[in-house]
Design goal:
Blueprint: H1 8-23, E1 36-45, H2 49-64, E2 70-72, H3 74-81, H4 83-92, H5 95-104, E3 109-117, E4 126-135, E5 140-149, H6 153-165, H7 179-201
Parallel strand pairs: 1-2, 1-3
Antiparallel strand pairs: 3-4, 4-5
Helix pairs in contact: 1-7, 2-6, 3-4
Length: 214
């Protein structure tokens, strides 16, 4: 007959590791070293809905070219955080609100801005304004000026990407997430306890009392 001295500590740690992966998948993801970037949108003035959509799509396309970031697009931000909350951020655009949003949702960078159509000719579009990158690591806002007709917007967006996005690396995180490390340590302890439990109380045959000397 086999007897195993399985201690409660092993069972606890095993359950802990499994629950941690289920309850906190974001902390345990494999690409957590990449910076999290949220492009929440642009506040437009005197710009038609068609041009608004075009500009947002172009900015999103520029950002999506970067493989070294984890990007949340304006559409994704609205779905996750709500249209009203995103609109409020874009309306205020004050550093305190942007910082609180980034901190609460663990974004390393937040992209947003304001673009105005300065053209008085209804047949032409001249976009003026700025696209901002909030840096949660250093609590700074970098501003990129936009001043170009619609036909030349892509050039200025490429400049923004080269200056403020392409230089983001996997080492530029606002904090170290302990998820995988904690899970690894938990599994190591669990394996150690299991080894000790099996070694010390391992398979043993039932022993019968030996003969008594008279």
């Amino acid at each position: 007959m086999y007897k195993y001295n399985i201690k409660p500590g092993f069972i606890f740690l095993l359950i802990y590791a499994l629950l941690f992966c289920q309850l906190f998948p974001d902390l345990a993801r494999a690409d957590e070293s990449k910076p999290d970037v949220a492009f929440i949108g642009i506040r437009f003035k005197k710009v038609s809905p068609e041009i608004e959509k075009l500009v947002l799509n172009r900015i999103s396309a520029i950002l999506e070219q970067e493989d070294e970031i984890i990007l949340t697009t304006p559409e994704g931000a609205r779905k996750v955080f709500g249209q009203e909350n995103i609109n409020a951020l874009l309306t205020r655009q004050d550093p305190q609100s942007i910082s609180a949003f980034a901190k609460h949702n663990q974004f390393d960078y937040v992209i947003y801005g304001t673009i105005i159509n300065e053209s008085s000719d209804s047949n032409q579009v001249f976009l003026s304004g700025e696209i901002n990158r909030f840096d949660r690591i250093h609590q700074q806002i970098q501003r990129h000026t936009i001043a170009a007709p619609l036909a030349r917007l892509d050039q200025q967006l490429e400049q923004f990407r080269a200056r403020y996005i392409s230089n983001l690396s996997s080492g530029q995180k606002s904090g170290f997430k302990l998820g995988p490390f904690i899970i690894l340590v938990g599994l190591v302890f669990a394996s150690t306890l299991l080894f000790k439990a099996v070694s010390s109380g391992g398979p043993q045959e039932d022993q019968k009392p030996g003969p008594v000397d008279e």
